[in-house]
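Researcher: For the record, we're logging two predictions in this thread. I'll number them. Prediction 1 follows.
Model: Prediction 1, sequence and structure:
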Amino acid sequence: MTDLTDPEDADLSSARPQSAPPRYSRRLSDKILIAFHHACDQGDYEIAEQLLRILETMLTRRTVPPDANRRKSIESLVAAHERLWHLRHPEQAYT
């Protein structure tokens, strides 16, 4: 029979105070960009394009205060568009 009061069986999420916000290691836009590259790696270009549209919407809307990493994010978006174009047009890639 299992002892329900055993501390090793306790839920680890209860160790965090209830008022503390959840911690995330990456921005949502970074996760979408990762998903885009994963879709490209699997050859699912339609999903990759939809993810790029979502990412573009996120990056082009105005934020208050302005995002300090906006330029880097826009450069990543442009590079992602270029990758998708080259994947869809392999005969014209890098000419």
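Researcher: Logged. Prediction 2.
Model: Prediction 2, sequence and structure:
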Amino acid sequence: MNYIMDQKFQDYFGKNLRQVFLYLVDDCNLRCVQCLYKLDICFQVEKKEIAFEDAVKLISDFKEMGATKLTLMGGEPTLYKHLLDLIKKSKELGYEYVRIDTNRTI
């Protein structure tokens, strides 16, 4: 494991984690009023995107916990500059399913 996981999280999932949703980037090319991921209420206060190295460590840890499905999301995940590398890495790690939640305008 690359990160120390909360013990309650580990106890609950053990090796039975199946699906992971990874929030990659706060930026988006749209400003939809109904969207949950608004730039003014972004989740990553200091950074606008997750570092590629951290993303790889996280998906590696989650894979070790049993994850087989990965959903990449964000504001707009296609704006994440390491998206293709992360997809490639997730397939190398053995993820069976990689999905991107996108607005499909880019």
